[in-house]
Amino acid sequence: MRTLGIFLLALHGIAAAAVYSQYNTLGALILCIALFAIAAGLAWQQSHVAYAVLMLFTAAVAGVAGYSLATEGLGLSSEAGLVFGLAALVLAMGLQAALRGKLQRVYFNELMVVSYKLTGGRTIIKGPAWVLPVVGISKPMARMPRYTQEHELRLERINTRPQSGPLGDVGQNIASLVLELVYRLNVDNPMKAFSIHNQDEIFAAAARSIGKNRQDAMLDKQFWVEVWRQAMADVAERIVRMAVHQTEMAALDVSHRRCEVEAAVAARLKVEAAQMGLELLECNILQVEPDEAGAALASRETLLRAQGLAEEIALKGEADAMARAALVRQMVEALRSSGSQISPRMIELIIQGALPHAMLGSYLRNGMLEPLEKVWERGGHSPN
Asked: Looking at the whole model, is its pTM more than 0.90?
């Protein structure tokens, strides 16, 4: 709006100077200065009402200037002066209307990029402001929204890395994942929005979605909303799939420990967003749905592997126990054959050293080790 005020003040100053040039008196100078001060006060307010009053005020001063030029400068009659004054008033109103039509308003929640044909440079104008393009010199290039944007992204069929363990590699994929993204334009470096990955494809799709050609679409805020939505979706999907696979979590782990995955995704996505001129504010995983069919298959595979491992452990344990029992028998027989006196305490110590306590009762009940009473009858001493 400051640009509009400057142009109106310039027009008002020209009209006031024309009035003073015809009378050239101190009273006329004071009047012109007072009128210009009033116009400057209106322009300083930078409101629509003040500018409307200033436009009417400037047109009236232009009418007075036309009348003065006709009567004092050209020596025409009062009637001719009125005609000249009315023509000057209409001309001033038309000029202001044309000027206002060329002006483009930049609102407080948006930003405009103006390009210069001669130098090839670009200027960033943050709202609220008014922009006056000059034919052949400057033109608006893009109008971008500054407000916060958010959308939900649903990703399908995300692969997780198989989990390694004693039961082998067990895998379970994610059927779907819902990700919430909250971001906004980085007003300190918005020019990076023109260097988005796959820019031509994304720009063309966004322009088609609003029914405009690319040049006109870039002046529409909805175009940039669609561009950033697609660009963030592409980058976020790639990062999420990579992060889930690298965390070495199963699908249920991703659901229960989603904060860890969110942190990993947000850290990478923030860097990628900055390269597109965006500032990532939030990144939240709202929902994780494991692949039910894959989970059932993984559970069956895990159960079969567990059963096989249990049988293998049982067989190894049984063979080891039988070997220890045979060792005890051989030790007792060797002592008895040598004529040594074998006490029940000695046999108990031999057994305790060769077999775990928890397995003694089972082996004695199954006949794998002779009861102590039989050993006593064959040469040992009775406990009595």
From this structure: no
